[in-house]
Design brief:
There is one protein chain. The strands form seven sheets. A seven-stranded mixed β-sheet has the order 3-5-1-12-9-10-11, with helices on both faces. A five-stranded mixed β-sheet has the order 7-15-14-13-8, sandwiched between helices. Strand 24 and strand 25 form a beta hairpin. It is an alpha+beta fold. The protein is 27% helix and 24% strand. The radius of gyration is 27 Å and the shape is globular. It has 20 helices and 29 strands.
């Protein structure tokens, strides 16, 4: 292989490093109407009256819309394959507002100043209702977040709006209670993870316009262009054929842009006025009315026999979807299905979850997608089990981890076809110097160090669901155009897919032109989420290249006046093996432009019945101040099994970035509401994300397995990398000072009071 498994520079590196990247707002026409929304000051209320007359009179205001002007047709903003598991519970504007920040009116004007002035002149009378802010009290509460009769769930996920239930499921194998009763050691604890913001550099934004044919065109910073097309058509109650979605360069997403947070507002303005419109979320809007990680509370029971064999795992997850369902039914499943299977010797498992509505900002997709929360809980519990047994937590994991060739009952009975988790654990142990540092080292200056370990798994696309299609055509002079529907949001998928294509076609990467996503011309792809791009779209690229090679051979044989079986294509030329006569790819490309009855192109699709999991081990070394509880992350060693890394440089950057986000989740990031439901974490002054100085030393290595169903043996990498920091750090702190913090983020205050409580016992 010339390109695969090589650290090839990104195909768009030059524009990125020179500051010439072009994003949504750079492309928007100068005459776009500026669109903003008036937001509710109440967590739960009914609009009794709304007066927009003074706002409409402001010079430069084109239109002001309320719920009276919008279709009474519910939809979901979740970017998922149809039919969506998420309930249809939204309107563009609704008479009922369900969280502080919920849109009340849409204002469109010629200038931002005019729009801001108009927003201040809208008068709204509310019937203020009692909200549900505590997700622990939401289920079967007489206060309903969604009492409306036209609420609907498209597929059965255990949803019931009259119980504030967005989803419910129970699954398992064996008699968990009986097995736990027979265990010599049992841990039964509750863990709490808070909502987290994706905090991507480019906020939510889109612009829209009508083309020559009167169709609605939307240019959006989105991870899911094809899903956005469907969502907008449903929201506006117009045919999908009337909607086109274009994805330019994206300034980060991390799952946030798998939700169509704001595209419907400029789209609605354009559809109603016929004029181009754009909406650019402020940072505050992106933090109070977006799609953060789901807050979850998990009760974990895990038991082992006296020999250290983990016999049973029982997980109950309560997930807060907030005001709307969005990704609630899908995210929660990973909290159990991606944590329990890490342990391959269990005799029984049970996984039960409830997803509930509350009057807080609706949650959505965030890197790790529920696995992050579940792995924090289960990996913390397993380490607590090791503490009870007076056993090294690495040793406990070595004895119980899932191995290659096993079937994983808690992972939908999928086979573990490629797995280097044991090697990842061994190498991480060496990197951190575990044996010399476990459990703790007293630094002699009032500070003490501890080390902690965590394992993780994720998936590679959604099995039996995610579909990717790819088109490749040969142009004159023989260069290729690679048409994909996958969305590069800075992850480098355009580069990775070009590497795969170049090796499949035996050509230079410079000879492959990658075309960005346009729903009118790009082949269908579910989008960039669920760690699907390298595995699912990569396999579609391989299939398409194989088909195209056959067509190139056939066309070459035609020009050489021989049979197809007589020729060979080496990437540069087609050669008649009997005569030695050949014709170059460039000559073929030029010849098909004249006197030809078929295009020299190929298109194939791929879906997989399996979602082979990547694996990862993370080990953290922390230093804790005994006087204050202050934590400093000293070292983080990570070893990843993502199959064959297609581009090790990009895989490394993905890993380092994901670990940094995980460190933020563990130690800093916290979405805080006041008693009336107002989100206090509305800027980077209040919502703390770690800087480069806060993450310590991050070291990354790879232990490659070979996934037979993936392109050149590859699995995913995008999500697995965020899952280990929070439990590894929590476990390290516990080893350092003997304080177990089961609620994220782990702050100095929590550690300090934990130490005080310990001393008083």
């Amino acid at each position: 292989m010339k390109y695969v498994n090589k650290g090839v520079p990104k195909v768009d590196y030059e524009a990125l490093v020179t500051g010439q990247g072009v994003y949504v707002n750079d492309l928007a026409p100068a005459d776009c109407l500026v669109v903003k929304v008036l937001r509710s000051p109440h967590a739960h209320a009914l609009i009794e009256d709304i007066n927009i007359s003074r706002a409409k009179a402001v010079p430069g205001i084109e239109a002001v819309f309320t719920y009276k002007d919008c279709p009474d047709k519910r939809f979901t903003l979740a970017g998922q394959t149809y039919p969506e598991p998420s309930p249809y519970d939204r309107l563009i504007l609704d008479k009922r507002v369900r969280f502080v920040g919920d849109p009340v009116a849409i204002v469109a004007g010629e200038t931002e100043a005019a729009v801001k002035k108009a927003l201040k002149l809208i008068r709204v009378n509310y019937e203020v209702l009692e909200p549900i802010l505590d997700f622990r009290k939401a289920k079967d509460n007489p206060i309903l977040v969604h009492p409306e009769e036209n609420w609907k769930s498209c597929i059965p996920v255990g949803a019931d709006n009259k119980r504030n239930l967005c989803a419910h499921e129970e699954c398992g194998e064996g008699d968990v209670d009986a097995v736990l009763d027979s265990c010599d050691y049992v841990v039964d604890e509750v863990y709490h993870t808070k909502a987290n913001q994706q905090a991507m550099m480019e906020t939510f934004r889109a612009y829209s316009y009508k083309d020559t044919y009167g169709r609605l065109n939307i240019v959006s910073s989105t991870q899911v262009p094809f899903h956005v097309r469907r969502i907008m058509a449903t929201a506006l109650d117009i045919p999908k054929s009337r909607v086109r979605v274009i994805k330019p360069r994206i300034g980060g997403g991390f799952g946030a842009k798998q939700t169509a947070v704001m595209e419907m507002y400029p789209a609605f303005v354009t559809w109603m006025t016929g004029k181009p419109a754009k909406m650019i979320f402020t940072r505050e809007e992106s933090m109070i009315a977006s799609s953060p990680r789901h807050e979850m509370e998990l009760r974990v029971r895990v038991g082992a026999d006296k020999n250290g064999i983990i016999k049973a795992i029982d997980v109950y997850t309560l997930s807060n979807t907030g005001a709307f369902g969005e990704h609630g039914p899908t995210t929660v499943g990973l909290s159990g299905h991606k944590s329990i299977p890490l342990y391959g010797k269990t005799e029984a498992f049970r996984f039960v979850y409830d997803v509930v509505y509350t009057n807080t900002m609706s949650a959505g997709a965030y890197r790790g997608y529920g696995a992050t929360q579940g792995i924090f809980a289960v990996e913390s519990a397993v380490t607590e089990l090791a503490e009870k047994m007076n056993l090294d937590p690495v040793k406990l994991r070595e004895m119980n981890l899932v191995k290659e060739g096993q079937v994983m009952p808690a992972y939908y009975n999928e086979p573990n076809s490629s797995c280097a988790l044991d090697r990842c654990l061994a190498r991480a142990k060496e990197m951190i110097g575990w044996d010399s540092k476990y459990p703790t080292v007293d630094m002699g200056n009032g500070k003490v160090r501890g080390v902690g370990v965590a394992m993780a798994m994720q998936g590679s696309g959604i099995s039996a669901l995610d579909t990717a299609s790819v088109s490749i055509k040969v142009n004159d002079d023989g260069f290729y155009t690679l048409m994909i529907g996958a969305t590069d949001m800075g992850t480098g998928c355009d580069t990775v897919l070009s590497q795969i294509a170049a090796d499949c076609l035996d050509c230079s990467m410079d000879e492959i032109i990658v075309h960005g996503v346009d729903t009118d011309v790009s082949p269908y792809d579910c989008g960039s989420y669920a760690s699907s791009t390298t595995y699912v779209t990569g396999m579609a690229v391989m299939k398409t290249c194989e088909s195209l090679r056959e067509k190139i051979c056939a066309k070459g044989a035609q020009y050489l006046n021989c049979e197809n079986n007589d020729v060979e294509f080496d990437g540069e030329k087609v050669t008649n093996l009997k005569t030695g006569e050949s014709i170059t790819r460039a000559e073929i490309g030029n010849n098909v432009m004249c006197n030809n009855n078929e295009t020299l192109s190929a298109s194939e699709a791929f879906t997989s019945p399996f979602s082979p999991p990547p694996f990862m081990v993370g080990m953290a070394e922390v230093e804790v101040d005994r006087e204050t509880g202050e934590v400093e992350l000293i070292d983080y060693a990570a070893v990843v099994d993502c199959g064959t890394p297609v581009n090790p440089n990009l895989a490394r950057v993905q890993t380092e970035g994901g670990i940094a986000q995980g460190i933020g989740m563990a130690l800093y990031e916290d979405v805080v509401y006041n008693a009336s439901g107002k989100n206090y974490s509305n800027s980077f002054m209040q919502y703390k994300i770690p800087s480069r100085l806060d993450v310590g030393t991050i070291r990354v290595e790879f232990e490659s397995s070979y996934e037979p169903s993936g392109p050149f043996g590859a699995k995913s990498i995008g999500e697995i990398v965020i899952n280990t920091p929070s439990p590894a750090i929590a476990n390290a702190i516990s080893n350092a000072v003997g304080v177990r913090v089961r609620e994220l983020p782990i702050t100095a205050e929590k550690i300090y009071w934990g130490m005080q409580e310990k001393e008083q016992k």
